[in-house]
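User: Sequence recovery, please. Input:
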């Protein structure tokens, strides 16, 4: 989105939020649970919409989950979309088919969180952020969203750089629902435990969930796992055993050791990935307005924290590091080191997708997370060489 009225882009949205006396959460998964933890004393939740859970009669907080077609939304009620970016575009399309309007009847979780706390309390709340210490990985997945198969070498950051990024981030942000230490394969980065300990010790009370991830093929040392067990962190263990069956023993050993050390984790069995297809996508013919629209239609909500800056799209940032997106324009990042309390609204607007340009250079090579991108691909399919 392109800035039109910097510092005031969400004035009207806040008024719409204030008009509502109760909200339904659309999605009862990870984001839905985290939203409840963040807003349990702030807003009235009157119901939950989740088709999968509705089919099995699931109740959340004593209230039965319903399918969207069962909903009878009152004028003073709203819907908060609390589902992942991969499912978001389709959900928005479905809501609009039922006649519901964005920012009037339904609201995106990241906008709701940030706008509510900014306008009501003058505090900066973010949904999530990605911190990427290293792209080093023992797998070479064809559709890797770090674009490792395209990179000539791995990208590895220094320990002092990472501490600086974490410190400057929390000088400007009061609370974040999900702080994600990403990869590459974090269990191959030598400072992962140091980083988790540093974040948890210094800023853990300002984080809803501190999370890192592993591809399930690397078994950390007992010393590393013992250190992680003392932190408020959870690990997403991606289950790619179908694609890389040669690592089945390592996966089983990893789960055993996580249980043994009482490290909080959950197994993520993903059925499919999204192929952003940078090697076969060319939108360079698009006009500037078309590129702005293409970016606005993308359900991608993550940004990257790097070098004291926020990057407006983490996948665009990863593509630049991998050498397939060209140089990033200055408009694609926001320098947290020069941010002041007077710029809180500007900072929040950037985090929610506003920039001077309205798109990234990588948008010219990326299909994006859209309702029309139906080309699902098998997770973790390996390649033998660079593409």
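Assistant: Recovered sequence (387 residues):
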């Amino acid at each position: 989105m392109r800035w039109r009225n910097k510092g005031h882009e969400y004035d009207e949205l806040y008024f719409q939020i204030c008009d509502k006396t109760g909200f339904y959460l659309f999605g009862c998964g990870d984001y839905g649970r985290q939203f409840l933890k963040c807003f349990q004393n702030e807003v009235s939740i009157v119901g939950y919409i989740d088709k999968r859970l509705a089919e099995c009669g699931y109740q959340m907080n004593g209230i039965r989950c319903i399918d969207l077609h069962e909903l009878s939304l009152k004028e003073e009620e709203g819907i908060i979309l609390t589902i992942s970016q991969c499912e978001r575009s389709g959900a928005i399309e479905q809501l609009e088919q039922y006649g519901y309007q964005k920012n009037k009847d339904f609201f995106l979780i990241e906008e709701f969180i940030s706008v509510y706390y900014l306008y009501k309390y003058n505090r900066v709340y973010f949904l999530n952020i990605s911190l990427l210490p290293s792209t080093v990985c023992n797998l070479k997945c064809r559709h890797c969203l770090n674009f490792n198969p395209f990179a000539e070498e791995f990208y590895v950051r220094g320990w002092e750089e990472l501490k600086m990024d974490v410190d400057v981030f929390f000088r400007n942000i009061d609370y974040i629902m999900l702080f994600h230490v990403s990869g590459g394969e974090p269990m191959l980065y030598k400072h992962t435990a140091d980083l988790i300990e540093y974040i948890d010790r210094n800023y853990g009370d300002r984080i809803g969930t501190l999370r890192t991830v592993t591809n399930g093929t690397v078994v950390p040392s007992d010393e590393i796992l013992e250190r992680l067990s003392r932190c408020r962190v959870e690990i997403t263990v991606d289950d790619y055993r179908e694609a890389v069956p040669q690592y089945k023993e390592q996966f089983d050993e990893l789960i055993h050791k996580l249980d043994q050390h009482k490290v909080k984790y959950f197994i993520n069995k993903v059925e499919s990935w999204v192929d952003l297809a940078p090697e076969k996508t060319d939108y360079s013919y698009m006009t500037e307005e078309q590129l702005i629209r293409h970016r606005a239609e993308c359900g991608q909500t993550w940004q990257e924290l790097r070098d004291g800056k926020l990057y407006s799209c983490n996948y665009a940032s990863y593509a630049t590091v991998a050498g397939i997106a060209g140089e990033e324009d200055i408009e694609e990042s926001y320098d947290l080191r020069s941010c002041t309390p007077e710029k809180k609204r500007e900072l929040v607007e950037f985090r929610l997708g506003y920039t001077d340009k309205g798109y990234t250079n990588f948008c010219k090579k990326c299909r994006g997370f859209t309702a029309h991108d139906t080309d699902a691909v098998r997770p973790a399919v390996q390649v033998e060489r660079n593409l």
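The two ends are 32 Å apart (CA to CA).
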